[in-house]
Automatic annotation (TrEMBL):
Coiled coil location: none
Gene3D superfamilies per record: 3.30.420.40
Cofactor or coenzyme needed: Fe(2+)
Residues involved in Fe cation binding: 115, 119, 308
Known role: Required for the formation of a threonylcarbamoyl group on adenosine at position 37 (t(6)A37) in tRNAs that read codons beginning with adenine. Is involved in the transfer of the threonylcarbamoyl moiety of threonylcarbamoyl-AMP (TC-AMP) to the N6 group of A37, together with TsaE and TsaB. TsaD likely plays a direct catalytic role in this reaction.
Pfam families according to UniProt: TsaD
Cofactor descriptive note: Binds 1 Fe(2+) ion per subunit.
UniProt similarity note: Belongs to the KAE1 / TsaD family.
Name of the featured protein: tRNA N6-adenosine threonylcarbamoyltransferase
Catalytic activity: L-threonylcarbamoyladenylate + adenosine(37) in tRNA = N(6)-L-threonylcarbamoyladenosine(37) in tRNA + AMP + H(+)
UniProt keyword tRNA processing present: yes
Region (Disordered): 327-347
């Protein structure tokens, strides 16, 4: 089954075609992405109305492009999947209405899928894909969650952030350091020059049992450190790099400690990391080290499939459409808030 996937939940227009006749990365026939980041950077964050309008402008040309890249026409498509949530409602509606319009015109099935299920299964697009069951650490701009995954649609939430998401904390720390949006990659880059011994930030919620996270205190800690340096007239480039390093070390350490606990608690030997923050090099290195120690293995999507993309939506949609799932009564969905653990396996 050849499925067109459409992602428009936030500030990335992603489109791809996945064919279930193949497995892993072989099934991905083409994918294209248009990032609105440059447009939103001017405002220091995503402006929802601008995001919706830009998706409207970019979506159809991107669909034409992926068809052309795969040497296909619209008539060769067997189904369409789109991100139905969570995300910005206006942005979601652009993808949902385009998918439904196209599916009706082509008389093919259509299904809204969960954005975080897309992130979670993005490592399935690699040749070296993990087998079920595994623990997943979802670390993105809006989510920080540990999930026990027994199979497609079998997701048990083990823990999550009680306040800010890890990516959001990176973005806020970046702002305080005078860096552009989105700040995660920029904080990581600055941290490379930083001295890991100059400051030590706390590892929130690691001193008690449990798999929940909290990152808002770290944000306050970062602000306090910057203000103190500023007051002392010491806030030079090196000091900023040292703060970035302390911040990154604290986030990475906290995430890795909880991953270790999740592996111990579940007894599983595979951990999948996905979402924008999973592109972080230090986090990947630290997790690789920890998993090696316990004969476990870590899996990640390739760099560009860590952040939002159409390929992950085409993949999830293709699995579920092939199993016979369709949007209820042909009604399009756009669900801004939608907990991952309410999903079910296809029947
Ligand atoms: P969600 O998927 O929860 O709705 P989102 O789609 O906005 O949120 P993603 O696109 O998956 O999130 O990821 C974007 C986030 O990842 C941003 O917060 C960004 O700063 C962060 N990020 C990207 N690369 C890195 C990196 N190398 N180090 C740390 N953070 C990073
Ligand atoms: Mg994004
Ligand atoms: Fe995302």
């Amino acid at each position: 089954m050849r499925v067109l996937g459409i992602e428009t939940s936030c500030d990335e227009t992603g489109v791809a075609i996945y064919d279930t006749a193949f497995t892993g990365g072989q099934g991905l026939l083409s994918d294209a992405l248009y990032s609105q980041i440059a447009m939103h950077a001017e405002y220091g964050g995503v402006v929802p109305e601008l995001a919706s309008r830009d998706h409207t402008r970019k979506l159809l040309p991107l669909i034409e492009q992926v068809l052309k890249d795969a040497n296909l026409t619209r008539q060769d498509l067997d189904g369409i999947a789109y991100t139905a949530g969570p995300g910005l409602v206006g942005a979601l509606m652009v993808g949902a209405s385009t998918a439904h319009g196209m599916a009706k015109a082509l008389n093919i099935p259509v299904l809204g899928v969960h954005h975080m299920e897309g992130h979670l299964l993005a490592p399935m697009l690699e040749d070296d894909a993990p087998e079920f069951p595994f623990v997943a650490l979802l670390v993105s701009g809006g989510h920080t969650q540990l999930v026990e995954v027994q199979g497609l649609g079998h997701y048990q939430l083990l823990g999550e952030s009680v306040d800010d998401a890890a990516g959001e904390a990176f973005d806020k720390a970046a702002k305080m350091l005078g860096l552009a949006y989105p700040g995660g990659p920029l904080v990581a880059k600055l941290a490379e020059q930083g001295d890991p011994k100059r400051f030590r930030f706390p590892r929130p919620m690691t001193d008690r049992p449990g798999l929940d996270f909290s990152f808002s205190g770290l944000k306050t800690h970062t602000l306090t450190a910057i203000r103190q340096l500023e007051a002392a007239g010491e806030l030079d480039e090196q000091a900023k790099a040292d703060v970035a390093r302390a911040f990154e070390e604290a986030v990475v350490d906290t995430l890795v400690i909880k991953c270790r606990r999740a592996l111990d608690q579940t007894g599983l030997k595979r951990i999948v990391m996905a979402g924008g923050v999973s592109a972080n090099t230090r986090l990947r290195e630290r997790l690789a080290l920890e998993t090696q120690k316990r004969q476990a293995r870590a899996y990640y999507p390739r760099g560009r499939f860590c952040t939002d993309n159409g390929a992950m939506i085409a993949y999830v949609g293709a699995q579920r459409l092939a199993a016979g799932e369709r949007d209820d009564n042909g009604v399009m969905q756009a669900t801004p808030r939608w907990p991952l653990d309410t999903l079910n396996a296809p029947e």
